[in-house]
Amino acid sequence: MTRLLSRLRSWTTSVPLAAAVLLAAVWGRHPGVFLAVVIAIALAGAVLAAVHHAEVVAHRVGEPFGSLVLAVAVTVIEVGLIVTLMISGGPETASLARDTVFAAVMITVNGILGLCLLVGAIKSGLAVFNAEGTGAALATVATLATMCLVLPTFTTSEAGPEFSTAQLTFAAIVSLLLYGLFVFTQTVRHRDFFLPVEDEATRPDAHAAPPSARKAAASAALLLVALVGVVGLAKVESKSIEDGLAAIGLPHAFVGVVIALLVLLPETIAAVRAAQRNQIQISLNLALGSAMASIGLTIPTIAVATIWLDGPLVLGLGATQMVLLALTVVVGVLTVVPGRATRLQGGVHLVLMAAFIFLAINP
């Protein structure tokens, strides 16, 4: 009983539970200013708690499984949120899946990746990683993004940037197959391609005993609760964010970018902390794995959800977005090929991230 009370007093336990209780209390409401501030504080606490529990689970299961846990957990909850909003939101949500997935790709491949490369290069002079695994991940992300977000703009079976039913089914199947093949490659067949390249003896946690199975299971459960709190509270806060952005004259579409930034905060913090420990490969696994999961899990889920969705499903990117995606892929390839990066490469990716945000504000 004493151990249970001690456990409940820990902020990493109490904050996710408090966030879940708050989410249940405010779901479906439009919070006022005071409540919006409380939600923002709870959201920040849930993000930090999620990072802590993800690191506990990662230490128990090892890499690259640890990176996969956080990426998939966030994406599954995010996909559920997208589907819920699309089913209940009406015609104005026709492009929600496209906007959310594209924002996730740009944030992860340019924002998280660039920030981690910059942090790693500042700390060690060079950010060193496995070119084989990172290149395979980037190739998978580029293929999925092109198949699901670019091709709909050019197909002719449907008017507008949409897939026909057969095309959407094909894209969904291909997305699942590619994502499944990548996970098999990452965790079974070529696991060594996705492990940090630094000397294991120099790692800060190299000699730390992994947590017990019981502690890891508790952290896994609390991670799920924390992530539900993060995504759910971000959704509740979206109306306040929307009102705030409208008050300062920003476009409505930018709300999706802000929500994506909030939802991806746990992965961002976890990736930067890994970069600070000189574990650049873990950072890149998180960044590219999140981008891949966002496409590979969202599109198949949306394809099934179209059974209940009314109206069009807009997936094709506009010209400006396609230019940014193409430039991101080219720069990503040039960054990955050497297997090491300087501050310059990190800066270039961050500039692309800044361009994405700026053009979302000023299309």
From TrEMBL:
Domain of life where this protein originates: Bacteria
Keyword tags: Membrane, Transmembrane, Transmembrane helix
Pfam annotation, one family: Na_Ca_ex
Name of the protein in its database record: Ionic transporter y4hA
Location of the protein in the cell: Membrane
Transmembrane regions: 7-27, 33-53, 65-89, 101-122, 134-154, 166-184, 216-234, 246-265, 286-309, 315-337, 344-361
Membrane topology: Multi-pass membrane protein
GO molecular function terms listed in the Swiss-Prot or TrEMBL record: potassium:proton antiporter activity; sodium:proton antiporter activity
PANTHER family, sorted: SODIUM-POTASSIUM/PROTON ANTIPORTER CHAA (PTHR37958), SODIUM-POTASSIUM_PROTON ANTIPORTER CHAA (PTHR37958:SF1)
Domain Sodium/calcium exchanger membrane region: 33-187, 219-361
GO cellular component terms given for this protein: plasma membrane
Major localization listed first in the record, in broad terms: membrane
